[in-house]
């Protein structure tokens, strides 16, 4: 029989693992850093997984019907995955995107026929961002209550509260890591945005081996807005989950799942992303750089000699070519 697929949705998941051998040698690491290359998904990011899962779940529950418009808020990658799947399924799509994301994201969404609106174009949302110093969770809730609730024929995906988000990582990402390492995984390292990836994959892996350590990454203090620098270069899509009010933490983040929080600054993420492109020929974005940097520091610890660290690299660096990520110092 032929092996011809009928939809891009059939191509999502089953992304490869790659040991970063050249990078390990350069740093003299005695632990293995094994990258889960999520840019092998059809729309080049881990968010393809949740886009498909949340749309499929809504269809099954009757929340998404023919003629409806799919609506989401995002730092970019979820919007791209949603736009592509909406096009494949015959839905209209509209997304509200943070202003500081790369131009490639807007162009990708529009290429799939989606409508992309910057947060600053919605006065109610911008007011909340100004008042809270950029609280994404508060901005999303305001958008839902003051704008989207007035519309009758849309489905608001709401990735930060949608249980299908972590569930798909528990059903796919975690099992893929376990199978491809033949159960030989000691540490999982991943950034936290919505928290869905680390919560779902971490939950599955701990169900197989409770001794697996989960390292969750959030931005360092120098990469967050403050009085002296209200708009510092940030790690796109990565948000704090410790040291912030409970209402700022997405419902999709399971705070019981991780064993250690690791903070990474934007410049450290940039350096790691640029370095691994030159050592191992993989081009990844800022959150992946942050994950690689954290994994490197964890791998250097004496107690981790000989262990396998799996690090989730969320997206492709091709979405950052218009940013300062790959600029020479």
From TrEMBL:
Alphabetized CDD domains for the sequence: CBS_like (cd01561)
Pfam family, one: PALP
Top-rank lineage group of the source organism: Bacteria
Key words, A-Z: Pyridoxal phosphate
Start and end residues of each Tryptophan synthase beta chain-like PALP domain: 8-314
Cofactor (UniProt): pyridoxal 5'-phosphate
The protein's name: Cysteine synthase A
Annotated organism of origin: Lacrimispora sphenoides JCM 1415
């Amino acid at each position: 029989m032929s092996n011809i697929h009928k939809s891009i949705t059939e191509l999502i998941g089953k992304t490869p693992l790659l040991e970063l051998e050249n990078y390990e040698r350069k740093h003299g690491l005695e632990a293995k850093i094994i990258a889960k290359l999520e840019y092998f998904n059809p729309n080049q990011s881990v968010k393809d997984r949740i886009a498909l899962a949340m749309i499929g779940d809504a269809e099954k529950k009757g929340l998404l019907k023919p003629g409806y418009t799919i609506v989401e808020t995002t730092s970019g990658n979820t919007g791209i995955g949603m736009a592509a799947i909406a096009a494949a399924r015959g839905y209209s799509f509209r997304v509200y995107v943070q202003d500081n994301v790369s131009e490639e994201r807007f162009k990708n969404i529009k290429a799939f026929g989606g409508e992309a609106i910057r947060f600053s174009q919605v006065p109610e949302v911008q007011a909340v961002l100004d008042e809270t110093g950029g609280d994404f969770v508060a901005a999303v809730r305001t958008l839902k209550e003051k704008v989207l609730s007035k519309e009758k024929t849309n489905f608001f995906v709401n990735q930060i509260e949608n249980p299908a988000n972590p569930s798909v990582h528990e059903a796919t990402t975690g099992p893929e890591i376990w199978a491809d390492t033949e159960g030989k995984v000691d540490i999982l390292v991943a950034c936290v945005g919505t928290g869905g990836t680390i919560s779902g994959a971490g939950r599955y892996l701990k169900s197989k081996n409770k001794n697996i350590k989960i390292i969750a990454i959030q931005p360092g203090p120098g990469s967050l807005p403050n009085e002296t620098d209200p708009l510092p270069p940030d790690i796109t899509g990565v948000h704090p989950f410790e040291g912030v009010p409970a209402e700022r933490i997405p419902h999709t983040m399971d705070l019981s799942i991780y064993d250690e929080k690791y903070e990474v600054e934007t410049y450290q993420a940039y350096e790691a992303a640029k370095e691994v492109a030159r050592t191992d020929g993989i081009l990844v974005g800022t959150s992946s750089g942050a994950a690689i940097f954290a994994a490197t520091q964890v791998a250097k610890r004496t107690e981790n000699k000989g262990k396998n660290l799996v690090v989730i690299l969320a997206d492709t660096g091709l979405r950052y070519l218009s940013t300062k990520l790959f600029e020479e110092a």
